[in-house]
Write a structure and sequence with these properties.
367 residues, 6 helices, endopeptidase fold (from Nostoc punctiforme), alpha+beta, disordered N terminus, elongated, Porin, 42% strand, 6-stranded antiparallel sheet, 2 domains
């Protein structure tokens, strides 16, 4: 039983390194820990997390904010402190109107706890587990709260030799110090299933068909609400038309297209040709493009004059790169059957639907 629990913890600790290698990010989190079973004195601490994919590695330490007397009859005081090394797994985030409200997570890891006094130090090693919620606050900050059960031995909580687990509650704030992205983007990253490396030969063939079909309509003018090459396209209308030519029926709006297919991490290292890339502006997702590869997208852009390719590394393309909010992978049915992904979504264009993008405008060529 002990061996199986240690193996499980080891697997949790190793798995994040795969995600970290893809999209590293670093965050610092000051926090306060409360011990309901103690005298009420909180412990202050700091954690450092390296995140990527849906997993992260986190190291933290904490210390009592004041000395505590050992007994009423003795003047000797003690100061508890501890340290933890956790593997954290983020679950599906909860959104409202394309904004992340919070993301739940669970964690498990190794821990040490100690009590220092003027004459001795008492230390215990064990492991701990728990769960919490993280919520973005503004552009680069987040707030979190979690509850932890701390075991003082390397045994399962229900084993006969296990001492009762000690409960802790932790509140804190988190801010990014590396790896890029706002707190909202970090939550989208952590709560996304990364399928960037799961492309198959059939997927690649389908992507080639999507891109070649889209390239046939380069130069078609932009028209808000447009859905055909005769009258012009808006961004979701163009994407929907291209996929309809391959037997895939997509929802009408960009924000609804961001909810179908398979989720892909919205960064260039994870995108594959043929993926849909969604962009956020004016408080929500309102633009969509097809990823071509080599940091290029094809889309119907009002500021670009219609259907065109844009290099995300150009001055204009960096606007889109800074506004990426989501990415999806939609693969046409291998048997050529109609794949209807629009069920349950509005088919008519509602008022206040997708408007033009606000990227730097492409200069008009003189006639």
């Amino acid at each position: 039983m002990l061996r199986s629990s240690l193996l499980a913890l080891g697997a949790l600790a190793v798995a994040p390194t795969l995600a970290i290698a893809q999209q590293p990010g670093v965050s610092l989190s000051p926090f306060v820990t409360f011990l309901p079973d103690a005298d009420g004195s909180p412990l202050a601490g700091l954690s450092l997390a390296i995140t990527g994919g849906s997993l992260s590695l986190r190291a933290s330490s904490h210390m009592s904010m004041r000395d505590r007397p050992t007994t009423r009859s003795l003047s000797t005081s003690m100061r508890p402190w501890g340290a933890d090394a956790d593997a954290v797994a983020y679950l599906e985030s909860y959104n409202y109107n394309q904004h992340v409200l919070f993301a739940p997570y669970v964690f498990a890891g190794l821990s040490t706890a100690a009590v220092d006094s003027g004459t001795y130090r008492l230390m215990r090693q064990g492991w701990s587990y728990g769960g919490g919620l993280m919520s973005p606050l503004g552009s680069a900050f987040g707030a979190f709260g979690e509850i932890r059960w701390r075991m003082s031995q390397y045994v399962l909580p229900n084993s006969e030799s296990a001492l009762p687990a000690k409960r802790e509650m932790r509140l804190g704030v988190s801010f990014r110090v590396g790896g890029g992205g706002t707190a909202t983007e970090v939550v989208h990253l952590l709560s996304s299933t990364d399928i960037g490396s799961l492309a198959t030969p059939s997927t690649n063939r389908a992507a080639s068909r999507v891109i070649s079909t889209a390239e046939n309509y380069v130069g078609t003018p932009y028209r808000r609400g447009g859905t055909s090459p005769n009258s012009g396209f808006d961004a979701p209308g163009f994407v929907r038309f291209v996929f309809s030519m391959l037997g895939v029926n997509l929802p009408r709006l960009s924000r609804d297209q961001a909810r179908v297919g398979d989720r892909v991490r919205p960064d260039l290292n994870s995108l594959s040709p043929g993926d849909l890339v969604m962009f956020q502006d004016d408080g929500g997702i309102n633009h969509v493009a097809i990823y071509v590869g080599r940091a290029r997208i094809i889309h119907s852009s009002e500021t670009g004059g219609g259907v065109r390719e844009d290099d995300l590394n150009s001055d204009r393309g960096r606007w889109f790169l800074d506004h990426i909010a989501a990415a999806r992978r939609v693969v046409p049915d291998a048997r050529g059957l109609l794949l209807d992904l629009a069920r349950g979504f509005p088919s008519d264009l509602p008022s206040g639907a997708d408007g033009p993008d606000h990227a730097p405008r492409v200069p008009r060529r003189p006639r």
